[in-house]
Each structure stands twice: as structure tokens, then as C-alpha cells.
Amino acid sequence: MAKGSHKFQAPKGTRDFYPDEMAVRRYIEGAWRAVSIGHGFDEIEGPNFEHLEVYTAKSGPGIVSELFSFRRSGGDTDYALRPEFTPTLARMAAARSANLPVPTKWFSIPVHFRAERPQRGRLREFVQWNVDVIGDATPAADAEVIAVAIGLLERLGLTREQVGVRLSHRGLVGGLLEGGGVPSDNLTAAFELLDRRDKMKPEDFQEKARELGLSDELVTRFTETRLIALADVDSLAAGDSVAMDDFRELCRLLDESGLAPWCGIDLGIVRGLAYYTGTVFEVHDAVDKERAVAGGGRYDQLIETFGGKPTPAVGFAMGDVVIRLLLEKHGLLDEPADYLPRPDVFVIATADEAAQKQLRPLVAELRRSGLHVRHSYKSTKNIGKLLGEAGKLRSRHAVILDAQCEQGQAQLKNLETGTQQQTPIQTLPQTLQLPNPG
């Protein structure tokens, strides 16, 4: 290293995406996009940063310490890099609330930023898939976004033995808490405590729960006897009848769609964000208590806080970090290099002058015909070495240019079958478009 130079590294909690790693990221993003579109959702995007008030209006001034916030030099406006997409979506929906179709079905795949200590499955910069239905207050919308999440799990090769969806309802949980003696002033704190329960020692959770007024029976219900089948929804016998009716209908719709085997009821799922108003759910590893793979719920009062008319909404988010860890754990990812796009053809030129002269014109012509083309940057008599380079790229075919170029001929080798034939150079664009040339 030269004197005075400095070796820079990526900021803590961020990642460099070299070609093979970027290919894995695009594979996951491609699955997100395909499932969303297949379920009838349209893609949107918003700015990477928002006015700071967008986040403090929803979560209070305490959220600022969790954000990358800034003020432009000489300016007087505070901004923040987005830590989540829901406030942006709510702002966008409010801006066009009079003209949106009912329901509106949107998805997005933005980059997010959180100013917190990096840990396994949680970084300061990450990609997140967001799926939302706006304008539909019925359990059918809840079932639809859950179906999208399960569709993604199936597409990636995960099974219901490996991963599952845990459903709950904040109205039901609130009714249980109040019915169990928790004062109304303590409900918000009780929700926050339940959301953190898996990150706490059991004795610490029990102590905090009792301080908030949770009976021993409620503590047991939220810790030991949590997961029940959707078919047993009536065993909840929980307070709010409207919430219970909605939740019962959601369970019925999921069963009707064949999704019930993926799901279970867990009233310990409450989601920590205060804007959730009804159904909430999380996708969890069925074996280990890994961080939730995805989570979301109904937020029926958020869009109006951004100036829109009262608009029901439900959605969820999934980050790329945790879903990749889950896929790796279950052996569902190939080697990163295997996700790189495969060239249709790799063009090799020997040291022969005619071959060198033909190389670039042929590459250009093949690319104009719509093929993915790579070529050698070296001239050598060792064709085997260059064929090895083509093989590493997983090229489907190789075109070998040698002295026969003067007669307008080239060698076309099918790298998948090993067959090779002499082919007129001028017909290569058409020949390579065939299903199995060579």
C-alpha cells in the first residue's frame, strides 16, 4: 500500500454485492416480483429518503435515534433515510386517495436503512419486499396478502414443515388483556412486552408481565399454550365479538383456499408497531426461533394521518437477509455463481489473423440478433484453455474462429452435449436461435 493511502471498507452493517452475490439477490427479488404480479399486484417505488416528520408523525420523536437522519448543509429541513416503506405507501395513497381503484394492490422492493446495531438477520442497509391491499376492510384482503406470502414460500421450495404463518388479532389480544385485569393505560406497554417476549428470559418476561397486570393464567397463555390450529379458532372464546367474527372469517377463507396447513393461531403475535389495528401475522421458521421471516397486519387508520380519507389497508414486509438465511439453512440455494446469467455463446478466436479480424464483427452481429454473447480477450493456440473459460461461465455454446474464417466457416460446439460441427459464419445468428443447435 502506498504511503499515506487508506484501505476503505464498506460501512458497518452494509454489504458489497459482487456479481455472484448480486445474482443471488436478483434471484430472490425475481421470486418476489413474480409472485406479486401473479397475484395481481402492481409495482410502485418512492424516494430513498423522506421528511423526518413522516416517521415522527407515526411513531413519535423517539424514533429519531433509530434513523439515519440529516439536514442538508445550509438548509433548514430535516430528512431521514427510509427505515420501512409503509409511511411512504400511506403518503402516496393519501395523495391520490380520490382516484385509487378499490381495492388497490401494490408491491415494492426498495432498499431500507436502520441506524441500529447490526446482528444476524438484521443489517443497517437491506432490501425489503412490501405487499399491500388498500381500500378493502374485509378479512378477504387479509387472506389475500397472506396467500402472497405463502406463494413466495412455495415458489422458493420451502415446505410447511419448515416454515409457517402465525396469525393473531390485536382486538382479540386487547380483549384478553383487559378481561384478564390489565388496566387500559397499560395496554400499549403490554403489546410492546408481548412483541419482545421471545427476546427475553422467561423469568424477566413474567416479572414485567405481572407489573403490567397480566395474571399468571395470561402469562401461561402467551408463553406455553400459544399455537393452535385454525380449525380450533372457536376455542379462543375471546372478548370483542366484531374482532372474533373477522378472525373466524379469515380462518375460514384460508382453509377454503387450501392454505390452513401453513397457518396456526398464536395470540402472542402482536407486532410492535402501534399503527396495527386488527389482524397481524408473522412467518416463522417452524423449528428454530429464528427472527420472523416476514410480518405484517392491518393498519386501518394510518393513511388518514397523511391527509387521505379514512382508508382501510393491510400488508406485510419480508427482508432479503432473513429469507436468504432460511434458504441456506434448508439447502435451497445453489452456489452463488450458478445464479449468474448463462451466455448463449462464447466466441473464441485463435491467434490466426483472419480469426482475430472476424471476432468483433461476429460478436456484434450475434448481439444484434438478441443473444447473450461473451468472447475471449486472449489470442492463443490453446483452444482448450479458452473452452475452459467458456465452461466456467456455463456458456451453452462456443464458436471457434480459426484459419477457416477465410472460407467463411467456424466451428460451433454445443457445450452441453459436446457435439461440434462446422457452420457458415453468416448463418450463425440464425443457427444459434434454434432450440438445440450443434
Task: Note the topology.
Blueprint: H1 19-38, E1 42-43, E2 49-51, H2 53-59, E3 69-71, E4 78-81, H3 86-95, E5 104-108, E6 111-113, E7 125-134, H4 139-155, E8 163-169, H5 170-179, H6 187-196, H7 202-211, H8 216-223, E9 227-228, H9 241-256, E10 263-266, E11 279-285, E12 294-298, E13 313-319, H10 320-329, E14 345-349, H11 353-368, E15 373-375, H12 383-392, E16 397-401, E17 409-414, E18 420-424, H13 428-431
Parallel strand pairs: 1-5, 8-10, 14-15, 14-16
Antiparallel strand pairs: 2-4, 3-4, 5-7, 6-7, 7-13, 8-11, 9-10, 11-12, 12-13, 16-17, 17-18
> What is the alpha-carbon Rg in Å?
28 Å
How can the largest sheet be summarized? 10 strands, mixed
SS element count, helices: 13
Q: Flag low-confidence runs.
A: none
Strand content: 15-25%
Features of this protein?
single chain; 438 residues; alpha+beta; 34% helix
Describe the structure.
- The chain has 438 residues and is α+β, with helices and mostly antiparallel strands.
- The protein is built from 13 helices and 18 strands.
- It has helices spanning 19-38, 53-59, 86-95, 139-155, 170-179, 187-196, 202-211, 216-223, 241-256, 320-329, 353-368, 383-392, 428-431, and strands at 42-43, 49-51, 69-71, 78-81, 104-108, 111-113, 125-134, 163-169, 227-228, 263-266, 279-285, 294-298, 313-319, 345-349, 373-375, 397-401, 409-414, 420-424.
- Strands 1, 5, 6, 7, 8, 9, 10, 11, 12 and 13 form a 10-stranded mixed sheet that branches.
- The longest helix has 20 residues, at 19-38.
- It is elongated and about 90 Å long.
